[in-house]
Amino acid sequence: MTLVLTILEIIVAAVLIGLILLQMQGSGLSGAFGGAGQFYRSKRSIEKILIWATVVFTVAFAIISLLLLIPR
User: Fold this and answer.
1) Are 58 and 16 contacting, i.e. CB atoms less than 8 angstroms apart?
2) Going by C-beta distance under 8 Å and a sequence separation of 6 or more, which residues neighbour residue 61?
3) 61 touches 19 (CB < 8 A)
């Protein structure tokens, strides 16, 4: 059971890293120095899906991590 959870956690972690990198695409360093100049706009559907998927995979990663802490 521990082996299955460990493999599942590695897969969830890899997907989570990919989702976070997809969200950061095009952000650059200009926002860090106050030069973003972006106006308020609504989120497009793909951005909403990425955010939702990131939340789901983060919760799954946390739950699997807690399950792996239980001594067997």
Assistant:
1) yes
2) 9, 12, 13, 16
3) no
User: pLDDT per residue over 1-45, tens digit each?
Assistant: 899 999 999 999 999 999 999 987 655 554 555 555 555 556 678
SS3 label, residue 16: helix
Residue 33's Cα: distance from chain center in Å?
A: 24
Residue 43 is classified by DSSP as P
CA–CA separation, 8 and 67 (whole Å): 12
Rg of the chain (C-alpha set): 17
pTM of the predicted structure, to 2 decimals = 0.73
Asked if 54 contacts 19 with a C-beta cutoff of 8 angstroms, the reply is yes
DSSP state of 31: G
Do 9 and 63 contact (CB within 8 A), yes or no? no
